[in-house]
Amino acid sequence: MHAAIVFLPLVGAIAAGLFGRWLGDKLAPIVTCVLLVASAILSWIVFFDVAIEGHVRTIELMSWIDVGAFEVNWSIMVDQLTAVMLVVVTTVSSVVHVYSIGYMSHDPHRPRFFAYLSLFTFSMLMLVTADNFVQMFFGWEGVGVCSYLLIGFWYKKPSANAAAIKAFVVNRVGDFGFALGIMGVFMVFKAVTFEAVFDATPDVAGQSFSFLGMNLDIMTTLCLLLFVGAMGKSAQMPLHTWLPDAMEGPTPVSALIHAATMVTAGVFMVVRLSPMFEQAPDAMIVVAFVGATTCFFAATVGICQNDIKRVIAYSTCSQLGYMFFACGVGAYPVAIFHLFTHAFFKALLFLGSGQVIHAVDGEQDMRRMGGLWKKLPITYAYMWIGSLALAGIPIFAGYWSKDLIIESAFVSDSPMGGYAFWLGVGAAFLTALYSWRLIIMTFHGRPRMSEHAFGHAHEAPRVMWVPLLVLAAGALLGGLPFLGGIMVYHGGHEFFGHSITILGENVIELAHEATPFWVKALVLVVAASGVAAAYIGYMWKPQIPGLLASNFRPLYKFLLNKWYFDELYDWLFVRPAMRLGHGLWKVGDGAVIDGLGPDGLAAATLNIARRARAMQSGYLYHYAFAMLIGVAVIVSWFLFRAWG
Amino acid sequence: MTEWLLSLAIFLPLVGAVFIISIRNDDKAVVANNARLTALWCSLIVLVVVIAIWVIFDSGTSEFQFVERRDWIPAYGIQYYIGVDGISLFLVVLAAVLTPVCILCSWEAIQNRVKEYMIAFLIMEGLMIGVFCALDFVLFYLFFEAMLIPMFLIIGVWGGPRRIYAAFKFFLYTLVGSVLLLVAMLTMFFVAGTTSIPELMQHGFPPDMQRWLWLAMFASFAVKVPMWPFHTWLPDAHVEAPTAGSVILAGVLLKMGGYGFLRFSLPMLPDATVFFTPLIYTLSIVAIIYTSLVALMQEDMKKLIAYSSVAHMGFVTLGIFTLNQQGIEGGIYQMLSHGIVSAALFLCVGVIYDRIHTRLIARYGGLVNRMPLYAFIFMVFMLASVGLPGTSGFVGEFLVFVGVFQDNTWVAFLATTGIILGAAYMLWLYRRVVFGELVHEDLKTILDVNRRELSYFVPLVIIVLVMGIWPDPFLGVMHASVENLVAQVQPAIDMAHAAGN
Question: For residues A45 and B406, what is the distance between their CA atoms, to the nearest angstrom?
């Protein structure tokens, strides 16, 4: 059964990918959908089996790489942490598959699209079921490639191709750290399975080794290297630049890969490696810092974007920041809880915005929307539910998880606790602000598009909005105790068993007990005032944002241009690499090596020959051969002298 | 009982070549066709023989197997002495796999002097297998040198417009190296009194002499690999060579450098190997970063892949000189993987070159619109070249990284940047050639890969995936031989450490 969960999507991918021509445009999507739904149902069965019965198991499939001590198996490990990821991945993926039947109905390359989606799901499942670093890396790169293929799915668009390459290469920068981390783990532990490494971690804690000529703490170094990988995949500063561009892909892809699953792999990794991170307090501080900073930074950019998908993309970036600083203060179960609820409401928001884009003929700029709520009542309701959950309004899923993250940061004694807490609160305000800005700009006010386009706007077909009921239910109920809540009850320890290690004080329990009332109130107040600010700024007094933008022009420009990260990287890495490449080619290879080497040799020989005029056969190789003999004689002389 | 199998694999292609010489007919087309068919069948039989050797091969021992030993020039103790171990076996397999592929991909592309072309390839195959089997230094040198001739002819006769320049550059570089190798060989003969490779491995040359011998051999092998800065012959040779020439060049010829290090430098000159490891590390790192950057700026597809070859072979030399189990096996695996993947990438270029007759990247774009199957195949090899887990490229590359990291973290750190640059230039190449709108007029009628092309692409795709997912049949066979090799070098490492402390 466990193997079926992982491999059914692969079967679907092969069926649609290689035999898509035989299956046809109608059947190929259906085959992949059926297989995925089956995988999702099995996942829920396994989830209850693991969560309630505690049946944790590892299935070894076969040996992969086995060289000396470096032994890696293909395997499927299902513990509590994996079980949560399994249901998240397969459920959201099923919904996205079914939704895509409607969304992609006019696309001529449907079988290819569904093959990629299923292949992505397979890779993601291999990632979360890995029992060793290398298989995790396999899934890690696998989802990266699928993301690359899907962002560039509309291959005729140059912007989509550019975004796809950017996503892959920036992720590779992260993988560079991940790969070095794995090498380091192997060097220190002589093993790459989680079990062996985690067992030996306490013995290694506090020791140091030589890395890049410096004497560094082993656990801190390894954790930071691995965390670089997590930053790339989960779009944390400063490796976040690929995520907003990734919105070039079809919207279901954004929902599945760039919101619910792949980008959360970094969070999953940190939680999976909690036994290591717990032994590396300095690395934890970095995790909390990066998470909190990204969480706030992305929210500030989110309020200035006009592309509906980019707003949600920055929001994803920001929510991932919440998850990371939860990890950083030691509240791993809450990070996973937020990952769980976020997957539902964020996928709902993306697919909802997909319905909007679908309705207005591919328009993504919110400045050319407005007034759509009457035309799209169901979508409107979905977007409200999603936004309520995202903003952390009570009873909705996001409230339970986000609230607890902020409280955990508050009670934590981590040096970054205060920093994370205040930035988290600030981001909560901005989250509510940009969410309602989005709703108001899209659905309210007067329509800012052509009469014709507005007249044609229509609600999505049933195959699209019905599956979203699952996500809406998740966004509504996902936080309630009987579903998501069990993860954080009793400090999360009982549910997660041995899959998460917490060494210090349990911040979640502390948060349950010791959070002062004003903190709980503050979180609610900032969320509510964010909503209120959006209403004031975009409905009652629409002139305010314009005034703010013109009065604080540099700040507005700074935010609109996403803190100029792209420009910085272009200037710092891309252009120099190009210039260097060109220089090395023309000067290094051309002028220096060839000039002094063969071409120079030939020229010199010809020159000497022309002067000598003694041997004038005129053939290049005669001269070259003469020189060779000379070289050989010299070397022989040295050799024999050294020997004799 | 099976000792004749290797000789069969070496001489069968030569027999096939003789057969082709004897084909005579007034109709040129008939001659050409018979030559092609004879060459194809001959190379396929060799492939079967070689696979049989692989199957019978006993992976439990590091001894040479299928050994055949006859006196040849008794006055100097020179013998016809051949055999394979876990290191050379797969290089033989690689040569046997790629030769039929070469013949198939030249089926229509080569129209003049078909007979001579096929003869050249069959002779080449025999010599390539011979080089990897030879256990006598003189025999090795003979094969090693003789191989230059058919390759030189393939580039010089069937090559592109600048073929003469490229052929001479290729010839000059390799010849300089070879001459020095000859000097080293003679010296070793005078010192040790034998040309038997297994005996030379046991001899133990004095350390200061080892360094000179090592440098002389290095000159030869570094050119072959090719290591920076001896690499500039490779892009020119590739660009001018016909597709099949590039396939053999990238697939097998470059491996002779790596093989030479493994067979000669490491076991025979362990002290010098340890002494010169920093040099190899430096050159490899420079190769990886330098040529990756250069590859980024190429406008010619073949040149780009040629530069990427130099970078990938940098991982090979890096792995070999880690002198530990993971690194060396990774290096060998990377050689095999690169042999298949870069050969396949050159074949991919060949497919569109045969149709449009240009290699300029800017002349393509949007091929996926007309050639979906081609786009898929190219994608697989492109990702394998990038080192995606699940393809052959990952296993070798990652083992090399793991091996290097244990020895030197700076080197590992710098080498790993290669995975970023590699992704950049390959994805960018793929995007410019395959994605986008079909703009150029002549591409609007281009045809997708045909059955003949599929007949070699499909097996190569399967090999790349199997090697990525289930490397055991390959790695398992190497273990014993590599363990033995590591044990041979270990005393030298320990001594260097002791001296260092």
Answer: 43
